Amino acid sequence: MILRRTLIVACTAVAAAAAMATTPAAARNRAGGAARPPRADLHLAPAHEQLGALRRRTVTSRALLEQTLAHIDRTNPALGAVVTLDADGARAAADAADRHLAATGEPLGALHGLPITLKDALETKGLRTTCGSPDLSDHVPGRDADTVARLRAAGAVIVGKTNVPVMCQDLQTSNPLFGRTRNPHDATKTAGGSSGGPAAAVAAGLTSLEVGSDLAGSLRLPAAYCGVYALRPSGGIVPTRGHIPRPPGWLTSSDMLTLGPIARDAEDLDLLLDVLAAPSPADAAAWRIDLPAPRRSRLAEYRVGVWQDDPYCHVDADTRGLLERVAALLRSAGATVDHTARPVDLAGSDRLFQRLMYATASATAPDAGFTEDVEAADKIPADDPRGLFLHSRTMRHRDWLRANEEREELRGRWADYFATHDVLITPAAPTAAVDDQTDTPVPGRYITVDGVKRPYFDQTAWLNLAGHVSLPALVMPAGRTAEGLPLAVQIIGPYLADRTVVALAGQLARRLPDPVRPPAFTG
Question: Which residues are the active-site residues?
Fold first, then answer.
């Protein structure tokens, strides 16, 4: 169900009429004065193509918006990706973008007139932001998250908000306010979480770009399951103020949280990264972010590590086969491929990740609940594995400082690895999208890998490699299962080498089969 602050979107016929009415005079007066309607499926094109049409004035922002709204109206009821729609606000913004371009001939910014949706964890001024929580069902922020402000300044037209699990705390997307977001490729599978709504919306063509958030794979897992691209940028290069579940009004965020782009190709990731990467407003007077160019210009020049599988988190036969095919493709293109060197121990790295994640998540715990956690932790021996959660959640500051020191040592080992390798390619997840388990309490959930039951949270073990050490990590579709579900790989690069992982993904994509598109993509 879409909750509306305004009227329901126009039907397809009205959208087409509005598109014609708002086509600029320069486009209508071509060749004998015959009007030329905008491309009927432009809303399904990559963002860079949409922006090109907007800047050439072969389509108006309002016309593109009406196409997008009509597609959302047709497609979203069965998908459940868009949960709050601001059609009137988006129309006003689109019209303003068109007037500005007509008057000045100059775009407002890099995203001039582009309709996009945003994850319902990012605060949007004047537009309800719930993070899927009944406690925030009426929360209408008084200001934008820092990232949202950058998007508006770049000219983006915000159409609405996309679904998340309650307070972004699940690997699938469902909540009491809006229900479940379905995987656009198979409604019985999960879209992932917590950025399940954003990833499903991009995959189904409801938006060309999205901004997701990633602490424990919340950006990359849904992208892998829905068959789209996502980049977890290097830690610290995208402002995070205004992201919930830190409570509304908080100025700080988790030291492990990163916001990043979701798109249908690598070029669009790069486009949105340029908008998102910036110092926080408080620091903007003194410094800028200037990410290095890609390390290599041709695929043949890359030194690529491939980590196909690991006893700590075995992947299934489909995923192993995918990594083999990607490695063979890289070798055939002339790249140097190393299957043996490992930057870190997967098990040890994951344990440290979990300790730091549980610690950072404790910041917003209620006082009474945290006191109970401290008392419970004191009753569990320090070396008891069952106490990992409580001991990490309640660790003393001295213990956190030592864990942070261990993290810095881990970052050093990664840096040593990247002195001889340009990137590392790993599985994104052990399998393709798993069954949706919304109706099963978390303790009873599991995944199945080659017929073997495995812990539910094994889904993110490979993604956790990059999360606590500030490395850029990109997920991209690279194949499909026999049933047609997307299969993805993860590309990890050196700190601040975000453009390297994006460039490699783009070059790799040109040699891979076209990504599988869900039926909802064309509606």
Answer: 119, 194, 218
